[in-house]
Design a protein that fits this description.
Radius of gyration: 27 Å
Number of strands: 0
Number of helices: 5
Largest sheet: none
Strand content: under 5%
């Protein structure tokens, strides 16, 4: 595990450059922060009693949630990268994109043969004909 401070600092710097870290912070952090603001200051908004204090709390709540999730996602990225570096497995920042013009193909197209199914057994004679009761 890279325990040298410069290495850890470099990993944290790389973590904050990852799109996945920022997307997670936006999706989860802002959503939870907005929900928290609605719960905590919603009664003031509905009563039209919004002053500077309520407005500040309404803005700060989503920012706190965003910051918390941003650092949590970055810490997870650093831990996973450290594990990959010590295990010797290659590190990929994102899975390859499969789209038009891509040379990569989804597994079901060219890399695997079609799945062969076993033929079904013929139904028994008793199952073919149903006698009326």
């Amino acid at each position: 595990m890279p325990s040298h401070p410069a290495t850890r600092r470099a990993l944290w710097s790389l973590a904050f450059r990852q799109r996945s870290v920022w997307l997670r912070a936006v999706k989860l952090g802002l959503t939870v922060g907005l929900l928290q603001a609605v719960i905590n200051q919603g009664d003031h908004w509905l009563a039209h009693a919004v002053d500077g204090r309520v407005l500040a709390k309404s803005i700060i709540s989503p920012l706190i949630g965003f910051t918390l999730v941003l650092f949590s996602a970055a810490a997870t990225w650093v831990e996973r990268t450290t594990e990959r570096l010590t295990d010797g497995t290659p590190h990929f920042t994102a899975p390859p994109r499969l789209g038009p013009g891509s040379k990569l193909r989804p597994p079901n197209e060219t890399t695997h043969s079609p799945r062969r199914r076993r033929p079904r057994a013929a139904p028994a004679a008793a199952d073919r004909f149903h006698a009326p009761y």
